[in-house]
Amino acid sequence: MKFVKVCDDDSVDCSGLVSSECFTYWLSSRKSAPKFPHESFRRTLTAHLSGLDRRKPFSKEVEANLLKILRGRKVWPCFENIPGVTIGTNGFRTKGFHEKSTEGSAVKCLPVQRNGVIMQGNDSKSSSDKRPLSEIASINEGIPIEVQSERKVTRVEPYPLAIE
Question: Is residue 111 a contact partner of residue 135, using CB atoms and an 8 Å limit?
């Protein structure tokens, strides 16, 4: 990473990632210039920061330092001298990749409904565990589960176990 500096005390300085030199270097590396270069640069940087679109996220140290810079409510330094560009004035509210992964580790194991099929496991998209809700509910031994659909989360109570 060309624009990230490691200090003597092993801390990182990410101010170079939002510098005009980094923006110019990034723009020159494109095969064809994007229609909206400022917005494209913002999207690229924030997608790497939050790990979106299958992009390789920054390391924890770089992410933490860069989030401090981007969460400030001022125009990014690379766009300060460009009139009409206000990227950064609202701050950056999205969580970084490592922030999300440390907070949401327990949620990943919930059963998820996709196209009417309940899937259970750490990676619901690639899970081969496709069982009816009644089987999953009985496995959870009476613990209610949440089923996620495209638009809402529904709380589903498991079927009561038969008492003989």
Answer: no
The pLDDT tens digits for 67-98 are: 999 999 999 999 988 899 999 999 888 888 88
Q: In the chain, what are the domain boundaries?
A: 5-102, 107-156
Count of C-beta atoms within a 10 Å radius of residue 46: 17
CB 79 within 8 A of CB 87: yes
Query: Strand, coil or helix: what is 145?
Result: strand
The three-class DSSP label of residue 161 is coil
pTM of the complete model beyond 0.85:
no
Q: Are 104 and 89 in contact (CB under 8 A)?
A: no
Contacts 24+ apart (CB under 8 A), 141-147: 145/110, 145/111, 146/110, 146/111, 147/111, 147/112, 147/113, 147/118
Residues 102, 119: Cα–Cα separation, whole Å: 23
| Residues paired with 113 in a beta bridge | 118
